[in-house]
Amino acid sequence: MSTPLPRDIGDQLGRLGRHWGWILFFGILMVIAGVFAVAWPGPTVLVLAVLFGLQILVSGIFSFINAFAADESGGMRVWNVILGLLGILIGLWAIRHIIVSVVALALLIGIYWVAYGVAQIYTAIAHQEAPHRGWLGFIGALSVFAGIIVIAWPGPSLVTLAIVLGVWLIIYGIMEIMLAFRVRSLHQHVQRVVTSPA
């Protein structure tokens, strides 16, 4: 016998579950970019800079939209607005100024990763009823860890930076892929609970 889920959790899982394919696509794209960066670090430095700019830009847009779409507290809503604006500004800056100092770009990326990771960890802690909160917390901790490393050592060579960021892309992409399948599984479970006779 299935345990009925609270309506608001079921609604959230339903909305997220319908878009699990986008999470999967995003994860696969990150893994492919990471493999290219590790295999050919020299030629892919500029491409990697553009991809990071795009990733941060898209993430910032989603955070900004989520601030008004999700049912969050006032403090979390403000944090998502700030995080969204920060992601949009850093993403646009990174795309526009590809040739500028890689150290400055690395610092901005590191700051954003730390902020993004803190938001993910807070979401995992605040929503204790969410079935996927463990993944959110792990991804958040991974993001904070990677951000601190980049901030602490912003001046390695371009090739070294490309390899480090490439490895991060692969790890993060794999986590996104696993999260996508987890979300799909939870969505199917919710659908079975909703459609099963009382």
What can you tell me about this protein's structure?
This protein is mainly alpha-helical and 198 residues long. The chain is built from seven helices and no strands. Helix 2 packs antiparallel against helix 7 (158-195), helix 3 runs antiparallel to helix 4 and helix 5 packs antiparallel against helix 6. The radius of gyration is 18 Å and the shape is globular. The termini are close together. Residues 1-5 have low confidence and may be disordered.
Strand/helix succession: HHHHHHH
Largest sheet: none
Roughly what fraction of the amino acids lie in strands?
A: under 5%
Structural class: mainly alpha
Radius of gyration: 18 Å
Number of strand segments:
0
Helix content: over 70%
The low-pLDDT segments are 1-5
The rounded distance between the terminal residues' Cα atoms is 10 Å
* Mean of residue pLDDT values: 75
Total number of helical segments?
7
Shape: globular
Concise description?
Helix content is 82%, strand content 0%. By secondary structure, it is an all-alpha fold.
List key phrases describing it:
0% strand; globular; 198 residues
Secondary structure blueprint with pairings:
Elements: H1 7-17, H2 20-39, H3 45-69, H4 74-96, H5 102-126, H6 133-152, H7 158-195
Helix pairs in contact: 1-7, 2-7, 3-4, 4-5, 5-6, 6-7
